[in-house]
Amino acid sequence: MSSNVTWHHGHLDRDERWGALGTRGATVWFTGLSGSGKSSIAAAVEAALVRSGRPAYLLDGDNLRHGLTADLGFSDADRETNVARVAQVARLLADAGLVALVSLISPFRAGRDAARALHEDAGLAFFEVWVNAPLEICEQRDPKGLYSRARAGGVEGFTGLSSPYEAPVAADLEIASDRTGIEDGAAAVLRLLGS
Ligand code: ADX
């Protein structure tokens, strides 16, 4: 951060903002292997929240990589930047009163813990949801054909094959997505949110 910038305070505090809007912001952070079902569950949660009148917005890794994080690849350092940048956006959305639904592989524990700390330091609720399907199942599903391309040597550093995934140790919710349908997974997240 440049030392030549100062913080401008607005006219509203969070309670006034949330009270006037009738919302409560929070962040739900979905982590898991590619193909584990993160985005499908997060999209179902987003739809259910919005349809029930609670503003929510999905920050999906694949989609964000078309814009906000289009400059980043899949090296460890770029993934760390990706997670840190999206954590900042989620914090802003949550502060604004939305439920930010983040769907990123976010393979490193330290980055996820930093995202939590960023929220908790700002007094915002943060829930880590581990969408847990065995690698073999994700690879069988292979919705984007990336596992087979990675096995054939066409994708460098693919998570679960040639790049690590550090499983959560204290997730707020674990969804065994090989045995749990999308709607049941989404329902569990909605309970977590009290919605
Ligand atoms: S993260 O590791 O930085 O959190 P992110 O969630 O943004 O990853 O993007 C993951 C998506 O990018 C995967 O679902 C997949 O479609 C695609 N992808 C392309 N290359 C890779 C790779 N090397 N490892 C994992 N996913 C990849």
Structure description:
By secondary structure, this protein is α/β, with parallel strands linked by helices. It has one domain: P-loop containing nucleotide triphosphate hydrolases (Rossmann fold). It has helices spanning 14-21, 38-51, 61-64, 76-96, 109-121, 135-141, 146-151, 182-193, and strands spanning 26-31, 56-60, 99-103, 126-132, 173-176. α2 (38-51) crosses α8 and α4 runs parallel beside α5. The chain binds adenosine-5'-phosphosulfate. Adenosine-5'-phosphosulfate (ADX) binds next to α3 and α4.
Structure class: alpha/beta
Specify the number of helices. Answer: 8
- Listing every helix as H and every strand as E from the N terminus to the C terminus, the arrangement reads HEHEHHEHEHHEH
Instruction: Kindly provide the radius of gyration, computed on alpha-carbon positions and rounded to a whole number of angstroms.
Output: 17 Å
- Give the C-level CATH assignment: Alpha Beta
Query: Given the C-alpha coordinates, what overall shape results?
Result: globular
**Strand ordering within the main sheet:** 2-3-1-4-5
Mean pLDDT: 97
Return the CATH architecture. Answer: 3-Layer(aba) Sandwich
Strand segment tally: 5
CATH topology annotation: Rossmann fold
Helix content: 40-55%
Main beta sheet:
5 strands, parallel
Unreliable spans are: none
